[in-house]
UniProtKB/TrEMBL annotation:
Origin species: Serpula lacrymans var. lacrymans (strain S7.3)
Cystines in this chain: C58-C382, C193-C437, C239-C253, C406-C414
Full protein name: Phytase A
Keyword field: Disulfide bond, Glycoprotein, Hydrolase, Secreted
Lineage: Eukaryota, Fungi, Dikarya, Basidiomycota, Agaricomycotina
Annotated active site: H69 (nucleophile), D333 (proton donor)
Length: 439
C-alpha cells in the first residue's frame, strides 16, 4: 500500500520568500552526514552545494526539473537477497559484540514501496522549488508534471505537487498530467534497450577486493555464519534501507567501519558507472530521449527523436506542451545516470578502476543520484554588454555543473544554441547506438 498524501497536505504554511525559511518535514536519521553520504544511491538527499542565484544581468525564464523518487524499501529481488543473508548470519552458533543484536533481529521491510521519509523528501522538494521559482508561476503558468509509471515514482510526483501547493498557500496547485507506461517508450525509464549489458562483472570484481576482510571479521565474530562476499554487500545495503524505513539508525550500520563504508560507496559508483553510465557501451544512449525532449522545451520546437520518446505523447500539445515556464519530470536513478552520461556530465578522464578508488574521481553516486536527487536545467535570459541572449545552466543537487563542452567560461552558463550544438550524440539519436539495443 502506497503512502497517503494526508500527512503532507495537512502541514501548516506560514509563508516564506526564500528556501531558507522552509520548515522541512524530513527528519534527521541520527547519523553524521558523512556516513549517510557513503550509502551511494541509497543516500538520503542532500544539497551538494548552496544554491547560487543567477549571475548579475540574468533571470530565469524556464525551469526543467528531473527528479528521482524518494527513499523506498528494497526491491523484491534485493529484499529476498537481504533476507537470505540475514538468515545466513543468524545461523551462527554465537555472536560477539557488536553482533549480539542479530539473535533477536527480525527482517520486516516492505518491497519497493515509497517509505514515509521518501514521501517527505518529495514534499520538501516541492516547497523548495516553489520558494525558489515562484516568480515563474501564475494561474495560467503552473508546472507541467510527468512521471514514469512505477508507483513510487508516481507517488513522489504527487507528494512534490502537494508540497508545491502548500508552499503557495494553495494558491497554485499543479497536477500530475502525464504518467508514462514503463512497458512502452518511456524517456523516464531505462527499460527499452534490450541488448544493454549490466555491471555484474565489475561490481563482483570490486567486491572481491574490499569484502573478504569484512567477511573474515564477521565470520570470526559470528562463528558458523559462513558469510559470503555477496552476503556482505546485502548486509551493508540493509543499513540504509532500515534507516530510511524506520527513520532511526539501523544496528547493521555500526558493524562496519568508516573505511568499509567508503568501499561500499565505491561499490555503488562502480555499479552505475558500468550499468547505465559511461562504462556501459549502451548506457548513455538510454538517456538520449530525455535530452531531445529537453532541447525541444529549451528551443520551443517539436521533439526530434527516434529513440525512447513516445511519439504520440510528444506530438500532442496536451501531453507535451511547449513554451511553458516550469516542467517537472519524475524518474529512477539509473535513468538519471544515463541522462547525465548522454549530456556529458560527470565525465571521467579514465574508467573507474576496479582495484582501487580514485579519490579525485568526479563520479560519486551520493552526489549524483541519492534518494530524491534532482537535476535542474535553468533557461536564463541574460543581458551582457547591452545585448540580450538565451542561456542555460545545469544544477545537480544544487551544485552548478561545469559545461565546458558548450563554452562555459566559469559560471556554468552556456548559450542555448551552443548547448544544442554540443548535444550531437542526442540529436543524432545516439550515433547509431540505439539500433544496437535491438540488433
Amino acid at each position: 500500500m502506497y503512502l497517503s498524501l494526508v500527512p503532507y497536505l495537512g502541514l501548516a504554511y506560514s509563508g516564506f520568500a526564500t528556501a531558507a525559511t522552509i520548515n522541512l518535514t524530513t527528519p534527521s536519521l541520527g547519523f553524521p552526514q558523512s556516513m549517510e553520504q557513503s550509502w551511494a544511491q541509497y543516500s538520503p538527499y542532500f544539497p551538494v552545494d548552496t544554491y547560487q542565484a543567477p549571475p548579475d544581468g540574468c533571470s530565469v525564464t524556464q525551469v526543467n526539473l528531473l527528479q528521482r523518487h524518494g527513499a523506498r524499501y528494497p526491491t523484491s529481488s534485493d529484499g529476498k537477497s537481504i533476507k537470505k543473508s540475514v538468515k545466513q548470519l543468524q545461523g551462527a552458533s554465537n555472536f560477539s559484540s557488536p553482533l549480539e543484536f542479530v539473535k533477536n533481529f527480525t527482517y520486516d521491510l516492505g518491497k519497493s514501496d515509497l517509505v514515509p521519509y521518501g514521501a517527505a523528501q518529495s514534499y520538501d522538494a516541492g516547497q523548495l522549488h516553489y520558494a525558489r521559482y515562484s516568480g515563474l508561476i501564475s494561474g495560467s503558468e503552473l508546472p507541467f508534471v510527468r512521471a514514469s509509471d512505477s508507483e513510487r515514482v508516481v507517488m513522489s510526483a504527487l507528494n512534490w505537487t502537494a508540497g508545491f501547493a502548500a508552499a503557495s498557500d494553495k494558491q497554485f496547485s499543479p497536477v500530475l498530467s502525464v504518467i508514462i507506461s514503463e512497458s512502452g517508450n518511456d524517456t523516464l525509464d531505462d527499460n527499452m534497450c534490450t541488448n544493454a549489458g549490466n555491471s555484474d562483472n565489475q561490481t563482483a570484481a570490486w567486491l572481491s577486493v574490499f569484502a573478504p576482510s569484512i567477511a573474515d571479521r564477521l565470520n570470526t565474530d559470528a562463528p558458523g555464519a559462513d558469510l559470503s562476499l555477496d552476503d556482505i554487500a546485502n548486509l551493508m545495503s540493509l543499513c540504509p534501507f532500515e534507516t530510511v524505513a524506520n527513520e532511526a539508525p539501523s544496528p547493521f550500520c555500526n558493524i562496519f567501519t568508516t573505511d568499509e563504508w567508503a568501499s561500499y560507496e565505491y561499490y555503488g559508483d562502480v555499479g552505475d558507472y558500468y550499468g547505465t553510465g559511461y562504462g556501459q557501451e549502451l548506457g548513455p544512449v538510454q538517456g538520449v530521449g530525455y535530452v531531445n525532449e529537453l532541447i525541444a522545451r529549451l528551443t520551443d520546437e517539436p521533439v526530434q527523436d527516434e529513440t525512447q520518446t513516445n511519439s504520440t505523447l510528444d506530438s500532442s500539445p496536451i501531453t507535451f506542451p511547449l513554451n511553458r515556464t516550469f516542467y517537472a519530470d519524475f524518474t529512477h536513478d539509473t535513468e538519471m545516470i544515463a541522462i547525465y552520461s548522454a549530456i556529458g556530465l560527470f565525465n571521467q578522464t579514465s574508467p573507474l578502476d576496479l582495484s582501487q578508488p580514485n579519490p579525485n574521481r568526479t563520479w560519486i553516486l551520493s552526489q549524483m543520484v541519492p534518494f530524491s536527487a534532482r537535476m535542474i536545467t535553468e533557461k536564463l535570459q541574460c543581458n551582457t554588454n547591452g545585448e540580450t541572449g538565451n542561456y542555460i545552466r545545469i544544477l545537480v543537487n544544487d551544485a552548478v555543473q561545469s559545461l565546458g563542452f558548450c563554452g562555459d567560461t566559469g559560471n556554468g552558463l552556456c548559450e542555448v544554441d551552443a548547448f544544442v550544438e554540443s548535444q550531437q550524440f542526442a540529436t543524432s539519436n545516439g550515433d547509431g547506438e540505439w539500433e544496437n539495443c535491438f540488433s
